[in-house]
Amino acid sequence: MMASNTATMGNLPSGIGICTTIPDILYLPELIFGGLVWILVACTLVVPANPQGWVMFVSVFCFTMTFIWVVVFACGVHHNRGTWATVDVAYHGIAAFFYLSASVALAKVTLEMKNEIDSRNYKLDISAVVFSYVATFLYFIHTILSAIRWKSF
């Protein structure tokens, strides 16, 4: 019998299994799109500061927490699998909610910039809005798939 690094839907992965199991395969796209939102918003003129500040907080927070989450799973630190599965669902649900609120705020700010002369910031913000909604979708799908896995414990 061969040992396998992949996990079934009822198990939490560890090691290289996070790159081969659903929903954990979504970590990499979450990091990529979240990082792109972070970079694009950081490149723009921050006007108005409050909604853009919220978008920056969400993108930096989710990027950092997702990276930490990947490291925790990759190192196999999660011993009580039921508790970790619950926290996994909760984190991804919160991240999806945060990203949705940040995406809406960013889209509103971007629409208000439409008639301004500086088209560079407008184009960067449009890209950030698109990537923000993609990140929202990824976190939402990850939440649903993590909830299905959590229910199987």
What is the structure about, briefly put?
This protein is 71% helix and 0% strand. It has 153 residues and is mainly α.
Please characterize this protein's 3D structure.
GO terms for molecular function: structural constituent of myelin sheath. It is found in: Membrane. With 153 residues, the protein is mainly alpha-helical. It has helices spanning 27-43, 49-75, 81-112, 119-151. The protein is 71% helix and 0% strand. The chain has a domain at 53-151.
Outline the fold blueprint.
Layout lengths: L26 H17 L5 H27 L5 H32 L6 H33 L2
Helix pairs in contact: 1-2, 1-4, 2-3, 3-4
Organism: Cottoperca gobio
Pfam families: MARVEL
Subcellular location: Membrane
Radius of gyration: 17 Å
Count of individual helical segments:
4
Structural class: mainly alpha
Mean pLDDT: 81
Strand content: under 5%
Shape: elongated
Q: Major beta sheet, specifics?
A: none
**Low-confidence blocks of residues:** 1-10
Order of helices and strands: HHHH
Query: How much helix, percentage-wise, in residues?
Result: over 70%
Strand runs, count? 0
N-to-C CA distance = 24 Å
Keywords: Membrane, Transmembrane, Transmembrane helix
Membrane topology: Multi-pass membrane protein
Domain MARVEL: 18-151
GO molecular function, one term: structural constituent of myelin sheath
